[in-house]
Amino acid sequence: MSKKYLLTPEGLEKLNQELKTLVNDKRKEVIERIREAAAHGDLSENADYAQAREEQSFIEGRIQEIEDIIKNAEIISTGSHRNNVSVGSTIVVKINGQERKYTIVGSNEANPKEGKISNESLVGKSLLGKKTGEKFQISAPAGEMNYEIISIE
User: For the chain, where are the alpha helices, taking DSSP H only?
Assistant: First the structure.
């Protein structure tokens, strides 16, 4: 049985764009580089050829990975979870007195710098199911962190 990948509509669109770029542009570019490098003769000592083949392998692997994610994607709706935190929720939390805004997403879309945290992460798991006003602690490697849910969008 294949793993289900939780994606927001935006995350699915990003993956579709990346797939399109890889298939239509990157794949053709690397094939041309392989062709050019092969034309230079002895392949056993041709660094350009080896590098292009390695890049082709990476591109093909990424194409397969994205196709699998898209095929097994479960689209999560955002903004429809006002009562408690769930995947797709955007929340404002107070962490040790400082306000932060997070969106709970599937692990493929997680990007803490953009405020997108995985539902599988320590913080993401701890937030799931919580309600506005709820206070709780998370034991993190940096120590005890006090959380309070300010709002759920």
Answer: 9-21, 27-38, 47-71, 122-127
Domains recognised in the chain with CATH numbers: 5-75 (1.10.287.180), 90-152 (3.10.50.30)
Token pair of 114, please? 């953009």
User: Rounded distance, CA 51 to CA 130, Å?
Assistant: 49
Burial of 125 (0-12, 13-18, 19+ CB in 10 A): middle
In angstroms, the Cα distances linking 146 to 90, 114, 131, 137 are: 19, 21, 15, 5
User: Is the pTM higher than 0.85?
Assistant: no
Single-letter amino acid, residue 113: K
* 35-78: pLDDT as tens digits: 988 888 777 777 888 899 999 999 999 999 999 999 999 888 76
